[in-house]
Write a structure and sequence with these properties.
The chain has 280 residues and is an alpha/beta fold. Helices cover 40% and strands 25% of the residues. It has a four-stranded mixed sheet with strand order 4-2-5-10, covered by helices on one side. Helix 1 packs parallel to helix 4 and helix 6 packs parallel to helix 8. The relative contact order is 0.20. The structure holds iron/sulfur cluster (SF4).
């Protein structure tokens, strides 16, 4: 049994939300730099240059990359031999977010109720997913999710007979409908399988995967490659001004499902996809 203080968790989350909002992940930066070299149109090249300059200024001046600093999704994976001490885990997670958003001067983007819409003034509560593993480890992923892209996400309960072709058609249609309004170039998380609830989780979890690591499943890697080409051929381009770069990355995650179903979820995300992982 290993004792882990929730105070450590809280402090690490505070630092992580500030870092995630102010420093672009290296894989996104690399993809943008590659895209800049591949684009031939002056407008597309200029937009990508602006995105890279914006990221550089944010990092140098410790200011957020985007005004939408997101609703924080936290994935807490911990061993069944971990004993949390010094307080409540979820209260500590929200304390860390509260401190980080205040100390980092990050926008408060959360309302307590979706209809009455009173801002909580500290960007809490987070959406927290808990996963139990064997052992004593603690691993945390955070994903402050912007809603310009989130609002363009879609889910379909397809029929098994729709098959891979039907799933691909839905994914492409979702990206086409999102268009310039979801802040391209995109990162797209796709979930296939599970149930109505799980498929959306799979799609969001797909956003945590590094862009430069290929899908270990060759069948899915092939599907990702064809979808990537088809999306970039749409010509939406950086910020919707046209060009070859509509997509920076697409990852598919699959899960077991019912014999009567083929759920598909498309979680849209943007060039400001922010996520960060750490161990305690
Ligand atoms: S979708 Fe992304 S780039 Fe657009 S406003 Fe939201 S966080 Fe910012």
């Amino acid at each position: 049994m290993r004792e882990v203080s929730v105070t450590r968790l809280s402090a690490a989350i505070r630092d992580a939300v500030i870092l995630a909002n102010t420093v672009m992940t290296p894989d996104i930066q690399r993809r943008l730099e590659e895209a800049q070299n591949q684009e031939t149109g002056p407008v597309a090249r200029a937009v990508i240059a602006d995105l890279l300059e914006n990221a550089a200024i944010a990092q140098a001046e410790h200011i957020p990359m985007c005004q939408d600093t997101g609703l924080v999704v936290v994935y807490l994976t911990f061993g069944q031999d971990v004993h949390w001490v010094d307080g409540e885990v979820e209260a500590a997670i929200n304390d860390g977010i509260r401190q980080g958003y205040r100390e980092g001067y990050l926008r408060f983007s959360v309302v307590a109720d979706p209809l009455r819409r009173v801002n909580t003034r500290d960007n809490t509560p987070a959406i927290v997913h808990y996963r139990l593993t064997p052992g004593e480890g603690v691993h945390v992923d955070i994903l402050p999710k912007g809603f310009g892209a989130e609002n363009r996400s879609r889910l379909a309960m397809l029929k098994p007979s729709d098959g891979q072709a039907g799933a691909e058609q839905f994914i492409l249609e979702s990206v086409r409908v999102a268009g310039p309004q979801a802040c391209p170039p995109f990162i797209v998380g796709v979930g296939i399988g599970g149930d109505f609830e799980r498929v959306a989780e799979l799609a969001k979890e797909a956003l945590l995967e590094p862009l430069d690591t290929p899908n270990p499943d060759p069948y899915l890697a092939d599907m990702e490659s064809r979808l990537t080409d088809a999306i970039n051929a749409m010509g939406i381009g950086p910020q919707g001004f046209g060009g070859r770069t509509t997509l920076l990355g697409l990852r598919i995650k699959v899960g077991a499902t019912h014999i009567a179903g083929l759920p598909v979820a498309v979680n849209m995300s943007c060039h400001s996809t922010r996520h960060l992982a750490f161990d305690l």
